[in-house]
Amino acid sequence: MVWNICEAKLSEGITADTVAITLALAEQHQCVQLKNVCLKFMASRQNLGAVMKTEGFNFLEAMCPSILAEVLETVDVVDVDSDHRNSSSTMGIHSTDNQHRNWRR
């Protein structure tokens, strides 16, 4: 129980500067919840570039290269989900536009 509380608290404070080291520690100590939060944070297009510029990322790259493969897999999943959401919302906009045009006729 205490372990879960610690994971939750650490998950709330993740930043581009801390995520890579936190991910390495989560992997080392088998903190699955914290690891997943870190992977999702890093996989975001808006975060990944900033994370890659940190010393923590250099450490992760040198000491835990297998985790970088998981990061890339997560990036693929996030990109696919994002593309799916964007196409769905775009389709919704077009449908609304078409309904509006049909109503005006």
Automatic annotation (TrEMBL):
Signal peptide: none annotated. InterPro entries: BACK_BPM_SPOP, BPM1-6. GO terms for biological process: protein ubiquitination. Pfam families: BACK_BPM_SPOP. Residues 18-72 form the BPM/SPOP BACK domain. Residues 83-105 are annotated as: Disordered. PANTHER family: BTB/POZ AND MATH DOMAIN-CONTAINING PROTEIN 1, BTB_POZ AND MATH DOMAIN-CONTAINING PROTEIN 3. Belongs to the Tdpoz family. This is BPM/SPOP BACK domain-containing protein. It comes from Musa balbisiana. The lineage of its organism: Eukaryota, Viridiplantae, Streptophyta, Embryophyta, Tracheophyta.
